[in-house]
Request: fold
Amino acid sequence: MLKEYLGDVPVGISNRHVHISQKDLEVLFGRSELTVMKPLFQPDQFAAEEKVTLVGPKRSIEGVRILGQMRNSTQVEISRTDSYFLEIEPALRNSGDLEGTPGIIIRGPKGEITLDRGVIIARRHIHMTEAEAGQFGVKDQDVVNVLVKGERPVIFCDVLVRVNNDYALEMHIDTDEANSGFIVNWQQLKVYR
Amino acid sequence: MLKEYLGDVPVGISNRHVHISQKDLEVLFGRSELTVMKPLFQPDQFAAEEKVTLVGPKRSIEGVRILGQMRNSTQVEISRTDSYFLEIEPALRNSGDLEGTPGIIIRGPKGEITLDRGVIIARRHIHMTEAEAGQFGVKDQDVVNVLVKGERPVIFCDVLVRVNNDYALEMHIDTDEANSGFIVNWQQLKVYR
Reply:
């Protein structure tokens, strides 16, 4: 299972969040630009000041942050734990792959939208540049295994590698994956073929 | 990492729950016996009708079920996700090992108790009989690795084996572990040395 050690990667834990289109931002907030709260580690990406409420059939989750830059389509990323709470059944998807995904109601301070699709559980992945891919000996769309040492050790199998020179070296996991392995932000994880 | 396949084990997912002492039950519910709602898979264990509220410094979780039989000491088992919500820092422990663990306030319909210790994140483990241990080729307190196949495959390392003829063959994990691997109750997992 862990055939060959390729290198270490720092982890970034994604809490539930929303990527928003300009059209939807205008309905929810009555404005056309996001307000930068703080930059994320991936270049040009940021956490916005703007937060929304995700409204499920019976229960809602308030205070869900929007991440920028803006996108062509609004996309909601939640954990499996969130999906049970909201009673929504999203698929495990790569970011942007929204065909056939369920929708949700999103509420902002100025209005509400009903997405007919866009809710996903994001597939874990590693961002890296071409130079880093060369050092790891992998290429875009490869899958690797990632060992998490610690008090509750775990191996994440079938982890997607995404190579682009606009990226910075970082593995993205969600809160369920983080909490299963007692993982904290910026922890170094071990990548294996 | 996965050296030798030993056999399959069905999984039971533990949601947050409380094991209660008779003294504490009397304070919370004004009675001396639990009411059986439904039996659990482990012999003589059951989910009770009685539910309580866990009260953290800022936030609470309602509707937390008590599991029977009664114990000598009250013990609260929560997930890491719950621990962030409640703002409590429990350690990863085997059931019953409560020395040095944090306390919590528990509220019932008839009263409230302040535990000075007893909150844990339960260490995952596999229950089996001596005959089953013989078939798996393991003994009490061994550790094994468990492969979870599926859409989000994962390997749980360092899984404790507990052997007792009062047990039934079952692996216990918490909701964070289940949701990280898209695991459902009664799914068969693969045990390796």
User: Anything to note?
Assistant: Residues 9 and 112 of chain B are 39 Å apart (CA to CA). The first helix of chain B runs from residue 22 to 29.
